[in-house]
Amino acid sequence: MPDGLTKSDLKNALDDYQLALKPCTKEALAVSLGELTDWISTFSNVTAEQRKKAIRYYAEVLRELPSDLAYEAVLRVRKNYRFPSLPKPGDLAAAVRDDLLQRRKERNAIETGSLTGQERPPAIRKERSEADKARVAEIMAQFKSGRMGEFAE
Question: What is the pLDDT along the chain (153 residues), one digit of tens a residue?
Fold first, then answer.
């Protein structure tokens, strides 16, 4: 165990990593898909049916990622995507692959006791701003109204 760390510190760090690796929440999935839907709606060469099908596949990928990485994947794909067609669902997972692997590696180091002292649990945002809460509510309302298809459940 690195100097200065207690068993309690390790347990707290492990709890933080477990939380940081938990699959995407329904709320976070809605926000990430809302961002994707808004973006791909600007693609003039993609039909509404193609968008709906793409969102279904994107949801499959994003719901497996931790909430913050699901959103980060959307941001990275939007920022770096250069083609006129829709990004592939795998592009979302690839955008945060290294981040996810690093979290797993560090969590495993805590669990196995092979700490190097370099591990730093990812920051977990516990409180949302009022603007964030309003945006989440808006996107959830769109899902519930059926605007975003079958993800309203």
Answer: 455 567 777 777 788 888 889 999 999 999 999 999 999 988 888 898 999 999 999 999 999 999 999 999 999 999 998 877 889 999 999 999 999 999 898 888 777 776 665 555 555 444 556 766 666 566 656 555 655 444 443
Q: Is 113 left (phi over 0), alpha (psi -120 to 50) or beta?
A: left
pTM metric for this prediction: 0.73
Instruction: DSSP letter for 136, please.
Output: H
> What are the residue ranges spanned by the domains of the chain?
7-152
Task: Report yes or no: 30 and 139 within 8 Å, Cβ to Cβ.
Answer: yes
Of 54, 52, 148, the C-alpha closest to 92 is 54
